[in-house]
């Protein structure tokens, strides 16, 4: 696999020694493979948002280098000629519906492609496609985005990013404030984009269940540093450490812990419902089935 | 059991929108934790606003602790009800933490000496006394919600309404706020209405009401509500974790008698399965 | 954007923090009036020294302070440039089409620059050391005489306090929206004037929509917390006149007299 993103000893400092000083990145090195689904986790204020904003050069390293495909960003990189990079890296911010501004849904979605030099016709085509992807009916095209429900507005905003056909998609807590149905729709969209459109997905989240259900690679941050990188299995294998990072276990691991505390022996700590159910079937064996 | 809130045959619609509530009736028992669940747009938050007289009914009557919600009683009613809203930012009126807690007291023209006493005590109740000089920009979402709760505790209400108060917080912040409200409810014998789409929050309630498109489709204990996982799914809600696990086991040929058990019951049942082996 | 200081409050216990907001507000007004009496290097220098002293007494480091007001300095420089290019009188040094620079306009431009700088400095110190609520209280006290004319002093004060309280919130939101639109290919800092105006739309529409949302939610929350009108309320804070206020007034008055003495009549 190719490298999509590579951080090499990246440090970022927001106004040191000021009363507003915010947490920084400290000597961060890691790689995200092209086509992977990576979750970035860490408690509030651990530096997750700062980290992802480096990937499309909204922030530049104070020290070190960030490479995104063949583009290299260093502290000296100027603000010019970043468009090609930003087109490749789609960024869905928290509560992205706050960025909507056009009179109609379709115009808002076309905004990105037009900025990146697409013709009216190309932009419209991309926008129509993006609407399909996020499951918005074409009937909404000419509605004002401000007349839609919160969940629909969020999908318009995400479509606005997808219309640029990015190769990397960064989702910063994309489901915050949504109800369970909306949550699942957005997460399934991320999976679809990964599986079918071969996008590299980077998900910033607090939902550990989403991490185990959707991601194959996890980056754990604490106080501006990357403290662990690996598959979910590895990350959650040590519950004490997870708690020390002020993070939670996925629901299944949490429930399994409760089982273990009452004296039930499990071979490994299961992370998903299926893993837990399989283990229960294993230890309860065929006897369990006789209950039927 | 005394009903502290009676919602009697109410109708309501927003301007230029179809009828949201048509003849809706609901009782809230004194001292209970009532969860109102439903997806976005089901009318949950509207109901809270109607109870507090923030918006006006088309038809019907709402009685809060013996008082009808109307123009004359509105301030007495708001003395009885404290609401924690969804967005932590948008309910922080004061310049600093202590000023914000004092806001409600100032509105009620409480004497200054007394106000300082109450503010201090309320901030202690929510463990935010050390933060009393902080400005909102330097607080986390969870801390802002704590301040909002302190502002409510300061007015010693009888009812606390959590209007999706935890939906913008991370899981840790969410649990902390819920634990805090549990404690405050217990210490002050309050009634709590929690409006939520978090099923695990509802699992800890005394009673659950499912609201869908402005209609109450079920009103039961969590145990009984959660037996009917199909109903939860049909209104776009998750089933509780234990129900999902039971369904996964069923899929693997292990059939439980019931489709919902709480954590302890489920673990006991699994233990039983193992010992039978 | 996050180091932008104007309108922010920095919690602290400094000399300036402890002064009563009423006297800080009145002193700021007074200072601005004195600025307009200054008209030569000596008188401006006296005021600059005074304001530097105030900044030091406010516990904010000077370099940090200057960095915090830098975005506004560009605005002033722009204004001053217009002033220099379009004013006449004095010895002509350079001219091109409608533009001309004279020695007089250069000096005037310099003075205008210092004037603006002084005004921004004093008002930034005011907001840095005074909570929005206290500023509002100060305004309320200062404007109290107007109540006799049915002027809604209390409401105005509360509005001001809330507006100031939301400045940081809206600043943060502006930054997020700018970043979001940058990610969608907007280039805010470059291009022709027309291009820049066009680029402002995707920033301003969401910013205003957000502000309106905040306002709606906030008014609901205020109502739920028992707010009816701004007049029938008690006050959590009172601000007593202190020795510090007296001393500050004496110093400011002395500098005022000094400025009158050394200005060019």
UniProtKB/TrEMBL annotation, chain A:
The keyword Hydrolase belongs to this UniProt entry's keyword annotation: no
Top-rank taxon: Bacteria
Keyword ATP-binding attributed: yes
One cellular component term from this protein's GO annotations in UniProt: ATP-binding cassette (ABC) transporter complex
Record-annotated ABC transporter domain positions: 5-248
Enzyme Commission number: 7.-.-.-
PROSITE patterns hit by this protein: ABC_TRANSPORTER_1, ABC_TRANSPORTER_2
Cellular compartment(s): Cell membrane
Major location category of this protein: membrane
Keywords linked to the UniProt accession: ATP-binding, Cell membrane, Membrane, Nucleotide-binding, Translocase, Transport
GO molecular function: ATP binding; ATP hydrolysis activity; ATPase-coupled transmembrane transporter activity
A Pfam family assignment: ABC_tran
SUPFAM superfamilies per the UniProt record, alphabetical: P-loop containing nucleoside triphosphate hydrolases
SMART domains given in the database record: AAA
Enzyme class, broadest EC rank: translocase
Membrane topology reported for the UniProt record: Peripheral membrane protein
Similarity section: Belongs to the ABC transporter superfamily. Energy-coupling factor EcfA family.
Physiological role: ATP-binding (A) component of a common energy-coupling factor (ECF) ABC-transporter complex.
Subunit structure: Forms a stable energy-coupling factor (ECF) transporter complex composed of 2 membrane-embedded substrate-binding proteins (S component), 2 ATP-binding proteins (A component) and 2 transmembrane proteins (T component).
Protein name per Swiss-Prot or TrEMBL: Energy-coupling factor transporter ATP-binding protein EcfA2
Organism expressing this protein natively: Lentilactobacillus diolivorans DSM 14421
TrEMBL record, chain B:
Pfam families per record: ABC_tran
Alphabetized CDD domains for the sequence: ABC_cobalt_CbiO_domain1
GO CC terms of this entry: ATP-binding cassette (ABC) transporter complex
Compartments where located: Cell membrane
SMART domains, alphabetized: AAA
Similarity comment: family membership: Belongs to the ABC transporter superfamily.
NCBIfam families: ECF_ATPase_1, PRK13648.1
Annotated protein name in UniProt: ABC superfamily ATP binding cassette transporter, ABC protein
Organism: Lentilactobacillus diolivorans DSM 14421
From TrEMBL, chain C:
Keyword Repressor: no
Keywords, in A-Z order: Cell membrane, Membrane, Transmembrane, Transmembrane helix, Transport
Pfam families reported for this sequence: CbiQ (PF02361)
Membrane topology: Multi-pass membrane protein
Spans through the membrane: 20-38, 45-66, 72-94, 106-129, 149-167, 246-262
Assembly: Forms a stable energy-coupling factor (ECF) transporter complex composed of 2 membrane-embedded substrate-binding proteins (S component), 2 ATP-binding proteins (A component) and 2 transmembrane proteins (T component).
Protein name: Energy-coupling factor transporter transmembrane protein EcfT
């Amino acid at each position: 696999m190719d490298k999509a993103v590579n951080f090499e000893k990246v440090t970022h400092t927001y106004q040191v020694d000021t009363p507003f000083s915010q947490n920084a990145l400290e000597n961060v090195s890691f790689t995200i493979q092209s086509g992977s689904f990576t979750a970035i986790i860490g408690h509030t204020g651990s530096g997750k948002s700062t980290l992802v904003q480096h990937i499309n050069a909204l922030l530049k390293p104070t020290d070190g280098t960030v490479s995104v495909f063949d583009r290299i960003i260093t502290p000296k990189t100027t603000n010019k000629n970043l468009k090609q990079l930003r087109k490749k890296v789609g960024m869905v911010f928290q509560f992205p519906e706050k960025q909507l501004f056009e009179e109609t849904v379709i115009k808002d979605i076309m905004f990105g492609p037009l900025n990146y030099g697409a013709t009216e016709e190309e932009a419209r085509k991309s926008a129509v496609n993006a609407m399909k992807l996020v499951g918005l009916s074409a009937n909404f095209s000419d509605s004002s985005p401000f007349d839609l429900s919160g969940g629909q507005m969020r999908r318009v905003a995400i479509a606005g990013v997808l219309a640029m056909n990015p190769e990397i998609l960064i989702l910063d807590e994309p489901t915050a404030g949504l109800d369970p149905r909306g949550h699942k729709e957005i997460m399934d969209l991320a999976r679809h984009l990964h599986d079918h459109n071969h996008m590299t997905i980077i998900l910033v989240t607090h939902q550990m269940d989403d991490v185990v259900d959707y991601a194959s690679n996890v980056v754990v941050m604490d106080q501006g540093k990357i403290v662990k990188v690996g598959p979910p299995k590895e990350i959650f294998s040590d519950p004490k450490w997870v708690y020390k990072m002020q993070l939670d276990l996925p629901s299944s691991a949490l429930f399994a812990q409760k089982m273990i505390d009452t004296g039930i022996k499990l071979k490994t700590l299961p992370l998903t419902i299926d893993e837990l159910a399989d283990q229960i079937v294993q230890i309860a064996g065929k006897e369990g089935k006789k209950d039927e | 059991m005394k009903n502290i809130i009676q919602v009697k045959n109410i109708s309501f619609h927003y301007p230029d929108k179809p009828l949201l509530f048509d003849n809706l009736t609901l009782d809230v028992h004194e001292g209970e934790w009532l969860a109102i669940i439903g997806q976005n747009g089901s009318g949950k938050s509207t109901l809270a606003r109607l109870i507090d007289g923030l918006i006006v009914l088309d038809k019907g009557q709402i009685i809060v602790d013996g008082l009808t919600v109307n123009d004359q009683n509105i301030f007495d009613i708001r003395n009885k009800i404290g609401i924690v809203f969804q967005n932590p930012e948008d309910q922080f009126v004061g310049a600093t933490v202590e000023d914000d807690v004092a806001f409600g007291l100032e509105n009620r023209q409480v004497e200054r000496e007394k106000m300082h006493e109450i503010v201090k005590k309320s901030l202690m109740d929510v463990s935010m006394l050390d933060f009393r000089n902080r400005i909102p920009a330097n607080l986390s979402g969870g801390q802002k919600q704590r301040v909002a709760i302190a502002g409510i505790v300061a007015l010693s209400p009888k009812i606390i309404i959590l209007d999706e108060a935890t939906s913008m917080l991370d899981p840790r912040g969410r649990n902390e706020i819920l634990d805090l409200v549990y404690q405050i409810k217990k210490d002050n014998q309050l009634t709590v209405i929690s409006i939520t789409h978090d099923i695990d929050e509802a699992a800890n309630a005394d009673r659950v009401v499912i609201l869908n498109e402005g209609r109450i489709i079920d009103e039961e204990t969590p145990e009984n509500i959660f037996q009917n996982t199909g109903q939860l799914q049909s209104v776009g809600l998750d089933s509780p974790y234990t129900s999902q696990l039971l369904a996964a086991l069923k899929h693997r040929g292990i059939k439980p008698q019931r489709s919902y058990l709480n954590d302890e019951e489920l673990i006991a049942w699994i233990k039983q399965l193992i010992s039978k082996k | 954007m996050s180091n932008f200081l104007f309108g922010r409050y920095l919690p602290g216990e400094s000399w300036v923090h402890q002064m009563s907001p009423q006297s800080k507000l009145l002193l700021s007004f007074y200072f601005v009036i004195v600025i307009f009496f200054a008209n030569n290097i000596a008188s401006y220098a006296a005021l600059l020294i005074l304001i530097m002293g105030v900044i030091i007494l406010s516990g904010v480091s000077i370099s940090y302070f200057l960095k915090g007001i830098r975005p506004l300095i560009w605005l002033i420089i722009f204004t001053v440039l217009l002033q220099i290019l379009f004013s006449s009188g004095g010895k002509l040094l350079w001219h091109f089409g409608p533009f001309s620079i004279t020695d007089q306009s250069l000096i005037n431009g310099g003075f205008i620059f210092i004037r603006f700088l002084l005004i921004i400095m004093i008002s930034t110190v005011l907001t840095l050391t005074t909570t929005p609520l206290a500023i509002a209280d100060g305004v309320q006290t200062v404007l109290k005489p107007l109540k006799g004319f049915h002027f809604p002093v209390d409401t105005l004060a509360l509005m001001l306090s809330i507006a100031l309280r939301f400045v940081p919130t809206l600043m943060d939101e502006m930054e997020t929206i700018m970043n979001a639109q940058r990610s969608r290919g907007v280039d805010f800092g470059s291009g022709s004037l027309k291009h820049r105006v066009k680029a402002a739309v995707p920033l301003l529409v969401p910013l205003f929509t957000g502000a309106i949302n905040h306002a709606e939610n906030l008014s609901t929350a205020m109502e739920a917390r028992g707010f009816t009108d701004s007049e029938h309320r008690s006050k959590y804070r009172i601000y007593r006149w202190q020795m510090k206020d007296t001393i500050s007034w004496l110093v400011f008055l002395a500098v005022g007299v000094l400025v009158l003495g050394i200005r060019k009549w």
